[in-house]
Specification:
Oligomer: single chain
Number of strands: 12
CATH class: Alpha Beta
Number of domains: 1
Helix content: 40-55%
Order of helices and strands: EHEEHEHHEHEEHEEHEEHEHHHH
Strand order of the largest sheet: 3-2-1-4-5-6-10
Bound molecules: nicotinamide-adenine-dinucleotide
Largest sheet: 7 strands, parallel
Distance between the termini: 30 Å
Radius of gyration: 19 Å
CATH architecture: 3-Layer(aba) Sandwich
Length: 341
């Protein structure tokens, strides 16, 4: 089985490549990534010499490139993680979100349609459902919850999902879609909440918290997300959407305080800052479908997962300090520059 994983130099895609390369030595994993600011090949260092792993640099929205790659590689499956993923960036520059998240997806779908595929999997997000009120803890997102997006990011992801499902209905393309809650864990880019707070707390720098910190997110350890996608690829029903979440709701303020306690740092480091425009209040996933149909169960709860994550950041300072210093961008040249010349 040859599997193209797009966005495999990013946070979740990188963890997924690790998972697949180790678990399925007989499968070939081809990591296709443009290496934007969010792509970091140092994440793949521990597995880059495995015989069943390869990296190719390219843009999923570049039709000529994608078709030439499919012509050459004839993949059996595609798992699409590649995306612009940061909500704040989508507010300042929405256009690149349309290009990568929507046009990149339709380009991949067209290539799958042209060359044939046994599965196309779209990695989506619970943000396509919008948000839930803070005073209704009884409400959860199910796969039937209407799409109701808030940001340019979630709108681009919802559009992509609709194209994926339309390609199943119209052309019979064997697709699946997963919508996951917020992830945390190793190799998370330090602009996102949890790694940002860990790295700043370690440096005794102020921790910026949006608004009053009451916004609620449903946190899932990235390895539980990877297991879920693996299950959907191998056992999921074609044409279906699966929500993924582990019932680990926490306010942003609770998350920050947990990190400060674990690192033995004072709460006086917390600074409340002006809220993000249109900030979603609460996300909460109902994972009944994937649990009952595919037998998925998360291995981590928030308390065990955050401890493991903090330990990982303490033991892998080089990885995240290279990002903060910008050194990580030189890794591609160092590893592949000569080979490409
Ligand atoms: N992070 C979360 O909590 C979360 C939760 C649910 C769903 N998701 C979804 O999971 C996927 C991965 O998220 P992430 O947090 O790992 O993102 P990320 O920003 O860490 O990684 C995205 C990767 O995509 C690559 N990329 C960007 N544009 C590209 C292009 N045009 N062509 C090829 N590669 C390109 C980047 O270089 C990067 O390596 C996204 O689709 C996101 O919407 C994320």
């Amino acid at each position: 089985m040859k599997i193209i994983v797009t966005g495999g130099a990013g946070f979740i895609g990188g963890n997924f490549v690790h998972h697949m390369v180790k678990k399925y030595p007989e499968d070939e994993i081809l990591n296709l990534d443009l290496l934007t600011y969010a792509g970091n090949l140092e994440t793949l260092k521990p597995i880059e010499d495995r015989p069943n792993y390869r990296f190719v640099r390219g843009d999923i929205a570049d039709r000529e490139f994608v078709f030439a790659l499919f012509e050459k590689e004839k993949p059996d499956m595609v798992v699409n993680f590649a995306a612009e993923s940061h909500v704040d960036r989508s507010i300042t520059d929405p256009e690149v979100f349309v290009r990568t998240n929507v046009m990149g997806t339709t380009t991949l779908l067209d290539a799958c349609r042209t060359y044939g595929i046994s599965r196309y999997h779209q990695v989506s997000t619970d943000e396509v459902y919008g948000d839930l009120p803070l005073d209704r803890p009884d409400l959860f997102f199910t796969e039937e919850t209407p799409l109701h997006t808030s940001s340019p990011y979630s709108s681009s992801k919802a559009s992509a999902d609709l194209f994926v499902l339309a390609y199943h209905r119209t052309y019979g393309l064997p697709v699946t879609v997963s919508r996951c809650s917020n992830n945390y864990g190793p190799y998370h880019f330090p602009e996102k909440l949890i790694p940002l707070m860990i790295s700043r707390a370690l440096a005794d720098e102020p921790l910026p918290v949006y608004g009053d910190g009451a916004n609620v997110r449903d946190w899932l350890h990235v390895s539980d997300h990877c297991e879920a996608i693996d299950l959907i690829l191998h056992k999921g029903r074609v044409g279906e959407i699966y929500n993924i979440g582990g019932h680990n709701e926490r306010t942003n303020l609770e998350v920050v305080k947990t990190i400060l306690r674990a690192l033995d740092k004072p709460e006086s480091l917390i600074r409340f800052v002006k809220d993000r425009p249109g900030h979603d209040r609460r996300y909460a996933i109902d994972p009944t479908k994937i649990e009952t149909e595919l037998g998925w169960k998360p291995k981590y709860n928030f308390d065990t997962g955050i401890r493991q994550t903090i330990d990982w950041y303490l033991n892998n300072e080089d990885w995240w300090k290279h990002i903060i210093s910008g050194e990580y961008t030189g890794y591609f040249e160092k590893m592949y520059g000569e080979r490409l010349a």
